[in-house]
Specification:
The complex is a heterodimer of chains A (117) and B (110). Chain A has 117 residues and is mainly β. In chain A, 0% of the residues lie in helices and 54% in strands. In chain A, strand 5 and strand 6 form a beta hairpin. Chain A starts with a strand and ends with a strand. In chain A, 38% of the residues are buried. By secondary structure, chain B is an all-beta fold. In chain B, strands 1, 3, 4, 7, 8 and 9 form a six-stranded mixed β-sheet that branches. Chain B has a three-stranded antiparallel β-sheet with strand order 2-6-5, with no helix packed on it. Chain B is globular, with a radius of gyration of 13 Å. The chains are: A mainly beta (117), B mainly beta (110). Chains A and B meet through strand 5 and strand 10 of A and strand 7 and strand 8 of B.
Chain lengths: 117, 110
């Protein structure tokens, strides 16, 4: 079945780095733009980053621009988010999601990132 | 990239109808028919309920409907059921490959 499975979350000190992964299965990964969306505890959803289907175009929310890098390996059906210079306000559940019909139709279960000293 | 504005909470009794509003600006909701709505139960991932303002994905009940007027989009749930109790988020395309979500609305079924 169509599935996205995130991994790589954990507890990290401010200023350190973390890399999230999202393994896709059950669909033709290379044909879809892929996104990262996060949700701080008890808060709303926030769009973080997007990569086009072939990885040639990438866009970021102002809150993470210059610190986070989205990438993908279409040979491995995997999406990544490299997070550098982490801040306490980056603490959130990070979801990967697929865009279809200009909406996010498939979501992973999320991976928790906690930035704390 | 300011969040869209949603009421913090709404409530209704089983069988009733409720409407959740989502107010943006002329740069997002007002400019594009690319508003979507998501349902999220506690501890779960969001689920797509409405896309492109009014369209329902396969498998979503026709009790859910969407609309838009100017800078405000709305989600209506008719025939409220206990399982509809959840958080609901709107989302809009905001141009230049960016997207903006609403702050979320907690629906309580009384």
């Amino acid at each position: 079945q169509v599935q996205l499975v995130e991994s790589g979350g954990g507890v990290v000190q401010p200023g350190r780095s973390l890399r999230l992964s999202c393994a896709a299965s059950g669909f033709t990964f290379i044909t879809y733009a892929m996104y990262w969306v996060r949700q701080a505890p008890g808060k709303g959803l926030e769009w973080v980053a997007v990569t086009s289907n072939d990885g040639s175009n990438k866009y970021y929310a102002d809150s993470v621009k210059g610190r986070f890098t989205i990438s993908r390996d279409n040979s491995k059906n995997t999406l990544y988010l490299q997070m550098n210079s982490l801040r306490p306000e980056d603490t959130a559940v990070y979801y990967c999601t697929r865009k279809e019909h200009d909406a996010f139709d498939i979501w992973g279960q999320g991976t928790m990132v906690t930035v704390s000293s | 990239q300011s969040a869209l504005t949603q009421p913090a909470s709404v409530s209704g009794s089983p069988g009733q109808s409720i409407t959740i509003s989502c107010t943006g600006t002329s740069s997002d909701v007002g400019s594009y028919n690319l508003v979507s709505w998501y349902q999220q139960h506690p501890g779960k991932a969001p689920k797509l309920m409405i896309y492109e303002v009014t369209k329902r994905p396969s498998g979503v009940s026709n009790r859910f409907s969407g609309s838009k007027s100017g800078n405000t989009a709305s989600l209506t749930i008719s025939g409220l059921q206990a399982d509809d109790e959840a958080d609901y988020f709107c989302c809009s395309y905001a141009g230049s490959s960016t997207w903006v979500f609403g702050g979320g609305t907690k629906l309580t079924v009384l």
